[in-house]
Design brief:
Belongs to the glycosyl hydrolase 63 family. With 445 residues, this protein is mainly α. The protein contains 15 helices and 9 strands. The strands form 4 sheets. The chain has a 3-stranded antiparallel sheet with strand order 3-6-7. A two-stranded antiparallel ribbon has the order 1-2. The protein has a two-stranded antiparallel ribbon with strand order 4-5. The two termini are 20 Å apart.
Length: 445
């Protein structure tokens, strides 16, 4: 292939992917937010909207800011940003668990809009900063100024009310809060949650009507998810009661890395709007130190979730352990070790990748290439690692990962996730954050 031919091929792929991504996002726009997909996810999801806003900033910046405003309009009084904001006008079929199951209206400080009672990784401050960077201007500064106090409240909620372990990190109270719902990382903590598949007889799952059951969490997984929601809901989502009775409390590397990165993003936002960036930088440094102190496993050279109830690190080696690479002040020893883990046969990161990045150790005996977060490749976790590689100036590995992510979508479309060996699209087609993050990756030539 000549240089000219190669340039034309790259330009053709760029145009093809950009057109596909933009069409996907436009089709999933729902008057003031973007649904993750028209089949499986007919409402607004928290961290989905953050990723979506990053992509929209390149093509629809006004819509990007509206995406974030709509989400934060449903913020609770205590600062939590719910993981689902329900759309009462949704034209899609019933979603389980829906607004009646969550019953947020009975909780103190909940918004008027029906929402869930749990959160997702706080990737919103970095998203807001990236939207501003992608499309700066007076309107962008004004949007940052309006959003800033809400982002600060989100951080205070997580570092305050959710510090169940007392070590300066946020605890998640449900696997859904990690974003990696059925990751093997949660197997050990979930084993202590009393539930069986009979629990699900009282409910009807709708996800398996739109996706192959072999690609979704099991009924036993869902039984435990339901039991955890019921436990939290029984206390009207008050976090003060967590230490006394809630059966699942885990410090997640991804959630807490996002918490730290958010403080650095807030420092940048503060500089733009005339606030003091210093406290944010200090908190970012403290969160980084706490992650290293509480979640670093020097024996295996990776970060692991901490089961707060059992006060021990969980054994599974998942993509969660790579996420603290996004922290700009991560010590060099941990940076080197995380890179070694990422480049090992477990994950296969390389300057030229022959297979996509999996979400779980592909050498593990219980690796499942089809089932949701137990092996498949996801664009958002790849994008987050890509950001970490760029932060720590590993342009060679960042380029290899970016190319792998774009190849997945070019070959299979904007799927929810992908087979970690073949690259076949899995889950929902026309998935919004896949489209959005492709737009961002395309823009970083």
């Amino acid at each position: 292939m000549t240089l000219t031919t190669g340039v034309r091929a790259d330009a053709g792929r760029h145009a093809r992917l950009r057109g596909l991504a933009l069409a996907t996002l436009d089709a999933n726009w729902e008057h003031d937010h973007t649904v993750p997909s028209r089949t499986l996810y007919p409402h607004q999801w928290s961290w989905d909207s953050a990723f979506i806003a990053i992509g929209l900033a390149h093509v629809r910046p006004d819509r990007a800011w509206r995406e974030l405003r709509t989400l934060f309009a449903a913020q609770w009084v205590d600062g939590r940003v719910p993981h689902i904001v329900f759309n009462p006008a949704s034209r899609a079929g019933p979603y389980f668990p829906g607004p009646q199951f969550w019953d947020s209206a009975r909780a103190d400080g909940a918004p008027a809009r029906a929402t869930s009672g749990i959160v997702q990784p706080p990737v919103h401050a970095p998203a807001a900063w990236l939207v501003h960077r992608r499309a700066p201007g007076e309107a962008s500064v004004a949007a940052l100024r309006r959003l800033y106090p809400r982002l600060v409240a989100q951080q205070r909620y997580l570092t305050g009310r959710r510090d169940a372990g007392g070590g300066g990190l946020a605890s998640i109270v449900h696997p859904w809060e990690s974003g990696l719902d059925n990751s093997p990382a949660w197997d050990a903590p979930l084993a202590a949650v009393p539930a069986d598949e009979a629990v699900m007889r009282a409910y009807r799952r709708h996800d398996t009507a739109h996706a192959d059951a072999a690609q979704r969490p099991t009924d036993l997984d869902y039984a435990r998810y339901v039991a955890l929601v019921e436990s939290y809901r029984a206390g009207r989502y008050r976090d003060e009661a967590l230490l006394g009775r809630h059966p699942f409390l885990v410090e997640c590397p991804l959630v807490n890395a996002a918490l730290g990165v958010s403080e650095y993003a807030l420092a940048r936002i503060a500089t733009v709007i005339g606030a003091d960036p210093g406290p944010h930088r200090d908190r970012g440094a403290r969160i980084t130190e706490a992650i290293v102190s509480r979640l670093w496993d020097p024996v295996t050279g990776t970060f692991r979730p901490r089961d707060v109830r059992a006060d021990r690190l969980v054994p599974a080696r998942t993509v969660l352990g790579l996420m603290p690479l996004a922290l700009p002040e991560l010590p060099s020893a941990q940076v080197s070790a995380v890179l070694a883990e990422a480049c090992s046969p477990r994950f296969g990161l390389a300057a030229r990748m022959d297979r996509p990045l999996p979400t779980y150790d592909r050498t593990a005996p219980d690796f499942e290439p089809l089932r949701y977060w137990r092996g498949p490749s996801w664009i958002n976790t790849g994008w987050l690692l890509w950001q970490g590689l760029r932060t720590h100036r590993r342009a060679d590995l960042a380029a290899g990962l970016r190319e792998s992510l774009l190849d997945l979508v070019d070959r299979a479309g904007c799927h929810e996730y992908f087979h970690p060996d073949t690259g076949v699209g899995l889950g929902s087609p026309a998935f919004s954050w896949t489209a959005a993050l492709v737009l961002d990756a395309l823009a970083q030539e």
